[in-house]
Fold this sequence. Notes:
The complex is a heterodimer. By secondary structure, chain A is an all-alpha fold. Chain A contains 14 helices and no strands. Chain A has two domains: 75 residues, no CATH class; 192 residues, MetI-like fold. Chain A is 77% helix and 0% strand. Chain A starts with a helix and ends with a helix. The model of chain A has no long low-confidence stretch (mean pLDDT 86). By secondary structure, chain B is of the alpha/beta class. Chain B is built from ten helices and twelve strands. In chain B, helix 3 packs across helix 4, helix 4 crosses helix 5 and helix 5 packs parallel to helix 6. The longest helix of chain B has 18 residues. The interface between A and B is medium-sized, with 20 and 31 residues.
Amino acid sequence: MKNLLRYVITRALLTIPMLLILLTIVFVVVRVMPGDPVASMLGGHAPQSVIDQKREELGLNKPLIVQYGNYLLQISRLDFGQSMILHQSVLDAIGDKIPATIELTFFGMIITLLLGIPLGAYAADKRRSPQDYAIRLYGIVIYCIPVYWLGLILQMIFGVWMDVLPVAGRTGARVFVSTFEKTGFYTIDTLLVGDFEAFGDVMLHLVLPSVTLGLVLSGIFIRLTRANMLDVLQSDYILAAEARGIRHRRVVYKHAILNAFVPILTMMGLQVALLMAGAVLTETTFSWPGMGRLLLERIYLRDYPTIQGIIVIFALIVAFVSLIVDIIYALVDPRVRY
Amino acid sequence: MTEDTILEIKNLHVRFPIHIGTVRAVDDVSLAIRRGEVMGLVGESGCGKSTLGFSILRLLRPPGEIAAGKILYNGRDVVTMSERELLAFRGRQVSMIFQDPLTSLNPLFRVGDQFVEAIRTHEPRVKPKEAWARAEKTLQHLGIAPERLAEYPHQMSGGMRQRIMIGMGLVLHPGLLIADEPTTALDVIVEAQFLDLLNRLREQFNLTILLISHNLGIVAQMADRVTVMYGGRIVESGPALAVFDNPRHPYTQGLLASIPNIKLDQPELKTMPGAPPDLVAPPPGCVFAPRCPQVMEKCREKRPLEFNLSGMRVACWLYA
């Protein structure tokens, strides 16, 4: 356990340089983006004096290195500044939307894993059987399908033709969000106030978006799990376990899958970034009021501070998740701990 | 079958159908192991000795299959066993240890937990704690401190892991232990220690061992009887002393002659000319005929019969 603690601390400290690099990239990217933030704020016809005044207000007249220092300082205080468009702090705008995105990606990930890992393991175990080929075909096809297209098709089937699932938004019209809003996670909020009807409604609204997201990503996980399982199933300790008379199913779904899970876990950490990108598209398709839609809206409006803030938050989430993944990694695999 | 025969293999054929044909990995092999003896199974790589070992547990990797023959363990035919019977058979009646101790233990589970699983698979009523205690006792026989059960495989040395494998093979007191090249991955010193241990355990528990090895030295040191395989067939078998002192089959003779001798001043190593046979299309007569220094016309045409020579069995026309 002492080793584990040391590992976690080391790993957490290593996140700091990674974050610095991420933040630097965001800083540079936002500044080389085409378009002038001040011009877009004030419109094209503002007199030079007003423009200069605004530049000073925003600190844009200072040398880049000073701007960079201020930027890091502000972020270290979790201060992302004010939106240029609305009189709202960037943090508030993000805080409003982030639970929706986390809820969506969380359930999306669960569906991905529930589909991808068992199907991949099964395909590996039944290698070269018709089931294996069917699962692999599914994996490739689903991976190639664009998120929004799949979303539209599912909306059409389940929302329009069968009319069993809502196609947009986080709740139905009859649910008054304000009556239970505490954390912003509607699944948690509804349960906190004990409103099970509203909880059911929230869950129903989650089905299509998270299934869409989960399906698309399941392809990668099927392929990854299958490849890793094939490797592991060839190893001596699997044969040795079978030679001890341990049931095949137990050997495959306990001994082998845990070993195959280690690289999959790494992939999960990396996939979170993709999941976020997928969420941007999914949110747009399903009118899901999350970070992805917020980002898209603000890009249209050239709201630079908000764009920067959202990207930083995404980067923080990815860094945080990869930290968590590495910790789970150490919990699963004793060799990592030492 | 005599009273003291524990395992009898009768006319076993193992095939691997692959795209260019069928590999006859084991071709009409018969073999009997007596209770309490160490049977050495020797031959070069690819001669089918490991395949024979895996066949006994019906653990052939696909596409390998037993095409014909019988494997009688205490009179019961393993070849016709159901999946369920096999589960009860593997590990409990016959256990197996493998070549590479570094990869034979699951790296994610503590060694003790792997013991407990092996024990409770066959004796589900045993409580985990009792199973752990039993594993501790086994470890004492192996000269390993019982506390090490709480460790993971990567915390142990190769020799220790191989001893653990032996322990796991013996914890259920199986009737037969198959050791497939158990020391190949170990260095000579650890190998010597391991063989000492195996000898000690053998006396203590009256073990029956099928020792598969390409290392003639180990087999000479351990085995009571020796079986020599070549090209998927048995060419010679008999008491170890007789086989090593007075080999009859030209292959065995060549094999023994090619062991370097430190006492002789040899300018170069003695080798056998030629290469092992292609098991997809073996020669029509004797498989060794193409390399045999004493080859006769008959050898190229007809597969040799097995001849009995004062306790030894030799498949060679020289003794017709």
